[in-house]
Amino acid sequence: MLSEENIAEWRLCAPSLREAELSDGETLYRQGEEPGFLYCLMRGVVRLSHVAESGAQITLAIAGAGDLFGRVSPGRASAHAASALGDARVLMIAPSDVERLVAKSPSFSSFLSAGLEASRERAERRLIDRQTKTVAVRLIETLGELAQAFGAPCPHGYSLEIRLTQQDIADLVHASRPVVTRIMNGLRRRGALDYRRDLICVNHLALQSLAKEKGGDL
User: Fold this and answer.
1) Do 127 and 163 contact (CB within 8 A), yes or no?
2) What is the pTM of this model?
């Protein structure tokens, strides 16, 4: 995670650098617009989504603390929108200052390189998983990752402290909502998840066991 020392150092040669608080549902940039900044999520959760020609909103990714999104260089419109899920805090740097920081700050260059590489690896892994794993395995692994990243302890294991619909989860695992609903019902029968109010509770130990079975008979 970024330190106050890093931010103070970068601010010396990046006048656009600032931090901003976001409220639930607040949009950072819209699909078709050119993002005005490179964003680093300091706290909270941001949804990256795309609206298809049919009008359906597709959840592409759920960004957590430390993730980068937006634009490193200017000149292109975004194919997705970015909006906060709950309260969040972001670090914002204009593309012109990103270029200046890369040239002048080794710590920023390392930070940017690591962040972009992590994003590339996540995208690559999702593509490989889509081609090589069943929907059940992808769903089990995704729920486990969400629990690790955004979960809080609860009697069942971890409660996902972000409000995701089954359609959001289906989008993340590249599957249809009816298929995901059927598998999630199976996971609930197996004791791997439950629901508390409108939150999903995940039994990570049961999920790990099912992952070893490659989804079992789900």
Assistant:
1) no
2) 0.87
Which domains, from first to last, does the chain contain? Answer: 4-130 (2.60.120.10), 133-212 (1.10.10.10)
Whole-angstrom CA distances from 120 to 32, 126, 152 are 22, 10, 27
> Is 81 in contact with 35 (CB distance < 8 Å)?
no
C-alpha dist (Å) from residue 91 to 16, 88, 123: 10, 10, 22
Instruction: Spell out the per-residue pLDDT of the chain, length 218, in tens.
Output: 678 899 999 999 999 999 999 999 999 999 999 999 999 999 999 999 999 999 999 999 999 999 999 998 877 899 999 999 999 999 999 999 999 999 999 999 999 999 999 999 999 999 999 999 999 999 999 998 998 888 888 877 888 888 888 999 999 999 999 999 999 999 999 889 988 777 889 988 888 888 777 766 66
